[in-house]
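agent> fetching stored inputs for the calcium ion docking request
agent> found them:
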Amino acid sequence: MLKAHASVHLNSVDGLFFSFYNTILALLFKTCLPLFMFLSEQCFFFPSEGWTEWFDRDNPSGSGDWETLSSLRRENPGKICPNPKSIEARTLSGRNAEDTGEKIYKYDTTSGFVCRMKDQRDRKCHDYKVRFSCSFDTCENVCWTKWYNRDHPSGSGDWEHLSALRKEKHGGDLCADPVYVEAVTVEDEIPALKTGQKFHYYSPGKGFVCRNKDQRFDKCRNYKVCFGCSCRSVA
Ligand SMILES: [Ca+2]
Ligand SMILES: [Ca+2]
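agent> prediction call returned; pasting tokens
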């Protein structure tokens, strides 16, 4: 009898303990899950770098096509970070500078890009545009929007363009003049440029568009995008 009583007492202590434990777990779950979901939506967690707008300040009509970093900085204040990580140059029609066969005089993150006519056999340069990738490890004055994913590539492609995002009012954190953009796959957050896919748009001014017809194999992956704004324009 005593044994049975003791066992009932122990069971009730166990029960109390479990109910206390469950309450704490439920409380933690209730508090942390929304917080975690909120934080995971915030783009600033993930991108450690982003691409600037494409710049095309010069035409190859004089001595060449001069897309120098010093001139670009002077003409586009605040739009290029102090220490770009990389530079990409393409012709206005989208061909990589490396594939044109032209001899490039400067092509680096210190000087920018220069194609001189006198270095070419036919004395002509293509008209190039350039852009830079910037790292934000040092906490520069960039405020990131949340991730946007308005479309998926089942139709003609994955259309995450800025005009539609603005029109559909997906969020209030899109500034008037984004200076950086970052796109990653929704499924595994692989940076867009590492997927090997070709993009119709990928710029802070237009947003991101991947068209299925531009891909050699398969269709576009599903991407999400976020934009970097000057913190002053967000505040
Ligand atoms: Ca140019
Ligand atoms: Ca998408």
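agent> quick read of the result: Residues 1-10, 35-46 have pLDDT under 50 and may be disordered.
agent> awaiting further instructions
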